[in-house]
Design a protein that fits this description.
Among the domains are: 242 residues, no CATH class; 83 residues, no CATH class. Helices cover 54% and strands 5% of the residues. The protein is mainly α and 472 residues long. A two-stranded antiparallel sheet has the order 1-2. A two-stranded antiparallel sheet has the order 3-4. Strands 5-6 form a two-stranded antiparallel sheet.
Amino acid sequence: MAEYDLALMAHLMRRAGFGASYQELQHRATVGYEATVEELLHPEDQPQLEMDVMERYMGWRDLGYLAANQGYWTYRMVNSPRQLEEKIALFWHSIFCVGDSKCMAPHNIQDQLNKFRIQGMGRFDELLLAMATDPAMLYYLDNPLSHKDSVNENWGRELLELFSMGVGMDGHPNYTEDDVKSCAQAFTGWTIGNAMPRYPYGRYFNQFLYNRLDHIDDQKTFLGETGNFNGDDIIRIIAKQPATARFISRHLYNFFVADEPQVPAWETTPPNDPGAIEILEEEYFRSGYDIRSMLRVLFNSDFFKEARFAKVKSPSEVVCGTLRLVGDFTGPKPRMYDAGLEIRYMGQDLLNPPTVEGWHTGKEWIDSGTLVERVNFTAGEVGRVNAPGIRDIITRLQGQAREISPQELVEGCLDMLGGYSLMGDTRELLLDHVSDSAVGPGHSVDTTAPGFPDLVAQLLQLIVSTQEYQFT
C-alpha cells in the first residue's frame, strides 16, 4: 500500500471527520479514496451512534446544563460512525451561531444541531428556512420581539451579514440598509410558542409559531425585486444571489481546505485561491444550491488534496482527534464532561460562541494560554501506554522487527499519528532523544525491551507538543 495513499486518507479523515486510527486508514485506503468520499457524504447509510446508555447515564437534569451538552456532543464527535455528519454540524454551528449565554436552554441548541445533521448537506435554501424557523435562533436574535408595528432588525440583518451573503465582495456591498429593513419586515410574525414547564418529565422543546396577524402584509422591495414578500420569499431571493454562492464557497474552503482571512475582511480581501472558490461557486448553482455536491467537488479536487497541514486545528479537532486516537472515550465514565470542558479551555465554548459572529479561526485559535492547554491535554492523553489506541501503536511498531533504528521509530510514530512531517531541527531533536534513550544494542531500539512502551509514549508526547501537530 502506497505511503501517499495512507497520508491522503489521513488528510481526508482529519478534514471530513476527526481523524482515524492507523488500522482504519489502512482499511479505507484499500477501499479507495473516491469510494471513501462517497461513504462520508452519505452518513444515512451508516449506523446511528447508540446513545441510549449515554443518555440514561446523563439524565434529563444534566442535559439542562451547558457543560453536560458540551460533553454529550464531544462524545458524539469522537464516536459517531457518521464522522462527516458531526463535522458538518460543527461547520454550520460556527456560522449559524446561537449562544447559551442568552438562550439558557441548551436542549434547544441541541435541536438546532440535529437539524444540521439532517439538513446540513442538503439544499442551502432549505437549511436557511430551517434556521428561520428554529426556536433557538429566533430567540437568540430577538425575532419574537419583532412586530408589525415595531420591527426588530436583528434576525434580518444577521441573515444577510453573517448567515448567507456577507457584507460585500470584490470591494462592493452586497445589500443596502433598505434591504435589511425589507428583510426584517418580511419575517414579522415568525416567532416561537411558549414551552411547557419542565416538571415532572423534563424539559420540552420550544416550537416555531407563525402569527399571520403580526406580519407586515405589504409590498416590499428586496435586492431589486418587489412583491408582498414573506420570509420564505426572502430566502428564495437570497439563495440565487452570486454573493451567496461566494459566501458559502469561502466558508467551505476556510473550514475544510485552508485558513482564509477572517469573515469581516471578505468584502475587501479576495480569496486566497480564487480558482478554487470559482469552482465551488459554479457547483453551487449547477447543483441547485446542494451542499453535498459542493463537498464532493471539494474533497475530490487537487486544491483539497494538496492542502495538507494548511489549517490550524480548532479546539474541537484537537480534543476529538486525540481522543479518537487514544480510543478509550467510548462510553459513560466519571468526569466524562471534562472532554467538552477541554475544548472550552482551548477557546471554543461549544453551544456558546462569544458573539453571533462566532469564533475567529486559523492562527487566532492560538495564544500563549490556549497553546499550553493544547500541549498539556494531548501529551497527557498519548502518554497513557495502557489506552487501547496507544497500545495498538506500540504493538504495530513491535511488529516491524525486533530491532529498529531511531529513524524508523520516529517515522513509525509520525505515520501512526496520521502522516505528520517535522521540520529538520525538530526531527533531529527527536532522533537524539531516541538515541539517548535507546533500549537496544548500540543506537538501535529493541522493541521487545520492557522500556519500549514508555519510549514510544514519550516520543508521541514530544510529537504532539510540536508546532506541526497544531495543524491539520
